Amino acid sequence: MLFPKKLKYKKVRKGKLKKYEYKPNSLKFGTIGLKAINSGLITSKQIEAARQAITRKIKRKGRVWVCIFPDQPITKKPVEVRMGKGKGPFSHWAFKVRGGCTLFEVCGVNTKTAIKAFKTGGAKLPVKTLIFL
């Protein structure tokens, strides 16, 4: 699983989840990519599950790039605990995805195999995805 090596603060504020990413999202490394359509939170476990699904579908022939990194610490209070008494303990790592953000890129395989792999990998993620060339 992905997680940062060092942090300045253990707990961070939630902030707002922006709806769409406006900067141009073109492919940087691969020939075909997987893009998020809407915004949401993707955990490190979900990123790893999608990556494994993609690499298994392409039968480890090409190269897969993970373009996102879970650097947001998520805290959670225990079940059935009263309000107040501070912020809960650390739970897991996540990445705040905006709509239009490139998630994965692949090269070295034909487009038909890559599309199949991205459909399987996109099913593991909590956001709607789009395959683009």
Task: Fill in the keyword field for this structure.
133 residues, alpha+beta, Aldehyde Oxidoreductase, domain 3, four-stranded antiparallel sheet, three-stranded antiparallel sheet, 2 helices, 7 strands
Order of helices and strands: EEHEEEEHE
How many domains is the backbone divided into? 1
Number of H- or I-type helical stretches: 2
**Share in β-strands:** 25-35%
Q: Which word captures the global form?
A: elongated
By CATH's scheme, which homologous superfamily applies? Ribosomal protein L16/L10
Mean pLDDT: 93
Number of strands: 7
| Main sheet specs | 4 strands, antiparallel
Specify the CATH architecture. Alpha-Beta Complex
Computed CA radius of gyration, to the nearest angstrom: 17 Å
Low-confidence stretches: none
Spatially, the strands of the biggest sheet line up as 3-6-1-7
Distance between the termini: 27 Å
**Text of the CATH class:** Alpha Beta
What portion of residues is helical?
A: 10-25%
Structural class of the secondary elements?
alpha+beta
- Which fold name is given in CATH as the topology? Aldehyde Oxidoreductase, domain 3
List the helices and strands and how they pair.
Blueprint: E1 32-36, E2 40-43, H1 44-57, E3 63-66, E4 72-75, E5 90-97, E6 102-107, H2 111-123, E7 129-132
Antiparallel strand pairs: 1-6, 1-7, 2-5, 3-6, 4-5
Helix pairs in contact: 1-2
